[in-house]
Amino acid sequence: MTTQNLDAADLRQVQAGGWVAEDVMDQIWDISNIPLPFTDRAGGGNADNQYTEWNVDKLRDPDLANAKVDGQDTINANDTNTGNRLGNHCQISTKTVQVSTRAQDSDTFGNTGGLAYQIMMRQRELRRDVEAISLSMQGSVEDDGDTIPGNAGSVFSFIKTNAMVGAGGSVPGFNFTSKLTGDIVPGTARPLTETMIRDVCQSVYEDGGDPTVLMGRTAVIRKISEYLFTASARVATLTADVGEDRTPATAKGAVNVFITDFGVVLDLIPNRLMPASSTGVSSVGIFDFEYLDIIFLTGYRVEPLAKTGLADKRQMIVDWTTRVRNELSQGAIHAIDETAAVTYA
Q: Which residues does 16 contact at the CB level (< 8 Å), separation at least 6?
């Protein structure tokens, strides 16, 4: 004994685990159940087949020579336009749990050994997978029914017209022959600039889009906010009227809205699940969510699997894809060096 008394140290040293009961809170604190900024904003819908299609069209540019003589006959003139037909392949994403009967019957902290708890957690993971894949560099792949699973082309894989890449990079976009989108090659990483953002916004606006969100990884959103507080940022000085009404002041250390030219107002939205294209390198999307959807051939559901022993089995499944209704409404900047400060140009 460490003292002449029987103390707590003595109780802990009793062989085979001691005599002091464990003091463990009977609850699990999970901080990973976070919002899904992209899928929460995107529209929804249903797919009828594993390859789902939609049509896109655009008004022609104004005809500055559109003038006719009074009484002129119309011969061999036809201004109709059929637009284009695009599509994306669905992707089956799953999570599987197998929990033994003994694990379910055991008294575990937070009931972590329970089947219901495991299903709940894996369903959350499945939704996180869809969020991240939607914003990856992944092109679409057709399921061959043998060894190659279908891949949903990410939102970025459709955005070609108003996309910027680094040196050596490429965005193949939608191929009307193969009916696939190609993987994005971001190119050599370089710092993000205010000019890049303005150029993409201008390009999207001129094509008819009205983006409302600039979404990126947390490191990029922070760099943008930090830049907008510098003297080199081409933004108006923030001012406030000082009157007799003295309300509590709030120290604001971030910018979360950026108003560009052309009336484009961008909410700066950080996404903790947005994947990097490589270590320290990522992309930002300049999105008009009116034209973005996550659609489902099979919605989120839980299916029981055959019981073959002393365990219960469940599979969570979702068969889904992305739909970019018109890629001209969206913008993207790839190959951003997350460690570099944002500059003007």
A: none
